[in-house]
Amino acid sequence: MKVLVTGGLGFIGSHTVVELQSEGFDVVIIDNLSNSSEEVLKGIVAISGKHPEFEKLDLRDKKSVQDFFKKHSDVSGVIHFAASKAVGESVENPLLYYENNINALVYILQELQQKTDANFIFSSSCTVYGQAEKMPITENASIQPAISPYGNTKQIGEEIIQDVAKVSNINSILLRYFNPIGAHPSAELGELPIGIPQNLVPFITQTGIGLRKELSVFGSDYPTSDGTCIRDYIHVVDLAKAHVVALKRLIDKKNQSKVETFNIGTGTGSTVLEVINSFEKVSGQKLPYKLVDRREGDIMEAFADTEKANSVLGWKAQSTLDEAMDSAWKWEKKIRA
Question: Which residue in the list 107, 150, 177, 233 is annotated as catalytic?
């Protein structure tokens, strides 16, 4: 069975391609290389021993999307990662985010709608919940007004998929994930941000390796155990496996509705200082950091209720925070060697 993975050379996408290939799927990747590199293919091949098909393509170009689906008419499942994802950048350049994240989704769904049977996994986000009123966050938590254009594109994307499901043969699963971290245990794949990292863990590892002078911890006066924000950090390999399980659920027609939603996290919240402590433990070195003012748009805490994913989807996160941090540190050391 052939599966299309859009954004398949990105952080989560590349790890998912490895898991798909290890389960016997044929994979074709679309990526425009705006935030990734063709070099990632070498890591995928080194781990899986298989070379996925790859097409450099911009999903904002409707004609290119149409031509792709004519050429690959045997694609029966799509895992859609391709999207711009930096909250701060989305505030500064909202139209880029609406064009990239919404248009690409629409063009793919237009092609899938023409099939008699199509399976679609959407890369959503816990940002759709905003600052939830209750922890842990269940899938039934109310969707709060988005605090960034990025978050809004995820909310709109989910709404589009719900609307299309009513009038098409597309079956979808929306995976709302929390904070992906870590790297493949082989150190052949990992997070490789272009420019200054937007996410905590690559900033930690780049500081640890000496690429950054020090880490800024935004906010030390939150009403949490140590005053810093709480997030649910999930190992990227666990997250990748959730996509394979979700796709198989659709292929085996075990879904209970045309669109299903699952939180993908560990169910445990960790403060920023706990993540730093974990890094110091696995690396054996002190991390230079400073406590600074809160950052606009940051919520205080978010961690998942994973009961539905555990019981209905049959998936559960396996790796600990220390294991994820250790893999991220091994990856950082390898790419800087």
Answer: 150
